[in-house]
Amino acid sequence: MKIDFTLNGEQREIDVTPMSRLLDVLRCDFELTGSKEGCGEGECGACTVFVDGKAVNSCLIPVAQMQGREVRTVESLASNEMLSDVQQALIKFGGTQCGICTPGIAMMASAALEAEPNASRARMRELMAGNLCRCTGYQLIIDAVISAAEARRRHG
Ligand code: FES
Ligand code: FES
């Protein structure tokens, strides 16, 4: 089945088994390996991508549903080879260790900051609750996201 969709700002077409998981198509067919597979069951958020601007678990979505949609992966967060503010903050604060959760965390944090730029620390924890991390204990991740939010406010 041929599927047309926008991927990281470019119109793409692929001939693929319709029930292939979006995560596999992104990683294997488009070689966008930033999105990770943690649980494969919609529980961990490591595979988070944006579909039409909404954060979703790409391990749960058949690629056939992407016809005509707009998909963005973690590879789209950096621009001109410069990491986004959220990505830079995650590094600076030690919010990334083994790195498996990090792409999903960066995507969800970006979505959360767009949706609720003034979210409290407690609210940010809620917004990020679907993204699991076995390494950092979350404190450093939330420190990083709150710092990125404060920097955005300072710089308008
Ligand atoms: S790999 Fe998709 S939610 Fe865990
Ligand atoms: S940094 Fe290892 S799972 Fe989050």
Give your account of this protein's structure.
The chain is built from 5 helices and 5 strands, in the order ββαβββαααα. The chain has helices spanning 22-29, 85-92, 102-115, 121-127, 139-154, and strands spanning 2-7, 10-15, 48-51, 54-57, 70-72. α2 (85-92) crosses α5. The longest helix is centred in the C-terminal third of the chain and has 16 residues, at 139-154. The protein is α+β, with helices and mostly antiparallel strands and 156 residues long. The model has no long low-confidence stretch (mean pLDDT 97). A 5-stranded mixed β-sheet has the order 2-1-5-3-4, with helices on one face. A hairpin with a 2-residue loop joins β1 and β2 (10-15). It folds into 2 domains: 2-76, Beta-grasp domain (Ubiquitin-like (UB roll)); 85-154, DNA polymerase, domain 1 (Orthogonal Bundle). One FE2/S2 (inorganic) cluster binds at residues 96-102, 133-136.
SSE order and pairing:
Elements lengths: L1 E6 L2 E6 L6 H8 L18 E4 L2 E4 L12 E3 L12 H8 L9 H14 L5 H7 L11 H16 L2
Parallel strand pairs: 1-5
Antiparallel strand pairs: 1-2, 3-4, 3-5
Helix pairs in contact: 2-5
This protein binds FE2/S2 (inorganic) cluster (2 copies).
One FE2/S2 (inorganic) cluster binds next to loops.
